[in-house]
Amino acid sequence: MNAGLMFSSETDMWATPQDFFDRLNIIFRFNLDVCALPDNAKCEHYFTPDMDGLAQPWGGVCWMNPPYGRGIGKWVEKAYRSAKDNGATVVCLLPARVDTRWWHDFCAKGEIHFVKGRLKFGAAKDNAPFPNAVVVFRPTLSDVFI
């Protein structure tokens, strides 16, 4: 992926850097990649665009690097609701778009960890032109007992 493509709207799919995922997987032990392509899936179990991850139930410990286009808010809401309503833990790699509605409505309610520097996605020659954050949604005691 070249820098020109990163600034264009030709794609909204950004393959997760393997070493970045591996470090998170040591901590979380993911069992499901909720939005992947067969050639970049990070877990044995994954949903492809044809499977429509938004229409599937999410459970266990999920990895989510969603398409970064206009529909990203739907993915973030699904991650939030899957944790709150279904008891899933969903770890999301997201562009740090702190000025958006979806960020305030959902990410602000999760655990936010800003990524230092800029990631290099997939086979890209250059780093991404945007900052990222890892946002974790998981059940809380108030979800269970209150």
State the helicity in percent bands.
Answer: 25-40%
Largest sheet: spatial strand order: 1-2-3-5-4
CATH topology: the name is: Rossmann fold
The dominant shape is globular
Using only CA atoms, what is the Rg? 15 Å
Number of separate strands: 5
Largest sheet geometry? 5 strands, mixed
- Return the structural class: alpha/beta
Question: How large is the share of residues in beta strands?
Answer: 15-25%
N to C succession of SSEs? HHEEHEHEEH
Rounded to the nearest angstrom, the distance between the terminal CA atoms is: 47 Å
Average of pLDDT? 88
**CATH class membership:** Alpha Beta
Number of domains: 1
Weakly predicted, low-confidence segments: 1-11
Number of H- or I-type helical stretches: 5
CATH-scheme architecture: 3-Layer(aba) Sandwich
Chain-wise SSE layout:
Elements (H helix, E strand, L loop, with lengths): L2 H4 L11 H11 L3 E2 L27 E4 L7 H15 L2 E7 L5 H5 L5 E4 L17 E6 L3 H5 L1
Parallel strand pairs: 1-2, 2-3
Antiparallel strand pairs: 3-5, 4-5
Descriptive account of the structure:
It is a single chain. The chain is of the alpha/beta class and 146 residues long. It has a single domain, classed as Rossmann fold (3-Layer(aba) Sandwich). It has 5 helices and 5 strands. The chain has a 5-stranded mixed sheet. Helix 3 links the parallel strand 2 (61-64) and strand 3. It is globular and about 50 Å long. Residues 1-11 have low confidence and may be disordered. It holds the Pfam family Dam. InterPro entries: Dam_MeTrfase.
